[in-house]
Design goal:
By secondary structure, the chain is of the alpha+beta class. It contains six helices and five strands, in the order H-H-H-E-H-E-H-E-E-E-H. It has helices at about 1-30, 35-45, 55-95, 105, 125-135, 195-210; strands spanning about 100, 115-120, 140-145, 155-165, 165-175. A five-stranded mixed sheet has the order 1-2-5-4-3. A hairpin with a 5-residue loop joins strand 3 and strand 4.
Length: about 220
């Protein structure tokens, strides 16, 4: 019986590993942005119908990092830097709203289809709409559910607009929410956030870590 449990546990881990990597491939290649949808689609493709074998979101995120490192390499690094530079411009533009970068661009897992996602903090949500209008920026209005902490969540205004080839995604949260980061949909822990100054330091660190360019002439 003990060996049977060991075998079942080993098989479940193997299936979770396969599903995590298939979900990561679907996210990287297919532009799927929702981890739950990616894992369900991966399970359907692999013919796995056991919910116990579904990987956690953080397992998919780890598999996505590995996929990008192995198969995308410098291409991913270049695209990520472009998105982070666009994010820095957006953070500076929305500085009056205490803008913070969140999501895949900050985490380093952003693919070609990922938005630059910012949180803006203001008790007057219409102030962001007026700011965009005054700047002559056409934006699409949506809403998003955000968990502010373990006991509070709600639907908050979202604005989407294009900046060159990059889509900027703004979620407007109450000013008081700046004190504590909202909870991540990936792992349920407080989200990583970065201000403009923090992102500048991250870009500088990326530049220092990049291998020197080779002269192919």
């Amino acid at each position: 019986m003990h060996r049977g449990r060991q075998h079942a546990g080993s098989r479940t881990r193997e299936l979770r590993h396969r599903l995590a990597h298939e979900a990561a491939r679907l996210i990287a290649e297919g532009g799927i942005r929702d981890f739950h949808h990616a894992k369900r689609k991966a399970a359907a493709r692999l013919g796995i119908h056991d919910d116990a074998s579904l990987p956690r979101n953080d397992e998919i995120e780890d598999a996505l990092r590995e996929y990008q490192r192995l198969f995308l390499g410098d291409t991913h690094a270049d695209h990520l830097r472009e998105k982070r530079e666009a994010a820095l411009q957006a953070l500076e533009f929305f500085a009056s709203f205490h803008a913070r970068l969140v999501g895949p661009v900050l985490a380093g897992t952003a693919g070609a289809h990922d938005h630059v996602t910012l949180h803006l903090y203001c008790d007057d949500a219409d102030a962001v709409a007026r700011f965009l209008d005054d700047a002559g920026i056409p934006a699409e209005s949506r809403s998003r559910q955000v968990r502010l902490d373990r006991t509070r969540d709600g639907d908050f205004p979202v604005w989407l607009f294009g900046a060159g080839d990059t889509l900027i995604d703004l979620t407007v949260l109450p000013a008081g929410a700046l004190r504590q980061s909202p909870l991540s949909a990936v792992d349920g822990r407080p989200m990583q956030r970065a201000s403009a100054s923090q992102l500048r330091r991250l870009l500088a660190e990326d530049e220092e870590a990049a291998p020197p360019a080779t002269d192919t002439r």
